[in-house]
């Protein structure tokens, strides 16, 4: 199982360093250890923003900061601050996010409101609407203390976000992310340790190749954007919304509309 020390020493080997380190956090006091202790976190953060890494993927309910007057959350405009026009909602950018990827749809697009998930046969998956991505922008604002913060503006109520989480524990990194971290850290170490410039260029090329592989590999694992249902599933459910989840080897799909929630329930074998 990889750990910070093994990643650090692999990075040193990759750029031809003759010394290894015995500790990173805290540094063992060597020039290599001091450089790695300084560069490890910035390297991780840069790599973590370079692709939608499955090993860093996290979903969470977003914290509501503002809602437009007339929305269910702010009917008279006094419960929440008003977000900037033309957006209906402002949410706090997740504090543990390296890179925000998308908003999970929670109701049919354009209807507003989210049907109660608890009534749908204990479905384990997210609620998915008719095909389409939820528009959003990341912006800045001032909090109650006039401190700058990042916010997410969208028209989706009860929004759930999917993002790359700031989890710097190598034990959860897959082999591609480990390889990318070794190459990226190696490239950063070359000038810090006055090593050969060609080695830095080689490390950068390796890191770029790993990131390209990751975008393909992670794109082929599971449901990536999960904003679009497969055509065969969309045809079965018609023009309504869906709730899905795995249950004893079957995918459970409940169709619904705003007037007949919950609707029909069907199960098909996986695959």
Count of discrete structural domains: 2
User: What class would the helix/strand composition place it in?
Assistant: alpha+beta
- Cα radius of gyration in angstroms: 23 Å
Strand percent estimate: 15-25%
Low-confidence stretches: 108-131, 223-271
The gross shape turns out to be elongated
Could you give the order of the helices and strands? HHEEEEEEEEHHHEEE
> Using DSSP, what is the number of strands?
11
Helix percent band:
25-40%
Major sheet attributes: 4 strands, antiparallel
Quick check: average pLDDT? 76
Strand order of the largest sheet: 2-3-7-6
SS element count, helices: 5
Report how far apart the termini are: 32 Å
Summarize the structure.
With 271 residues, this protein is α+β, with helices and mostly antiparallel strands.
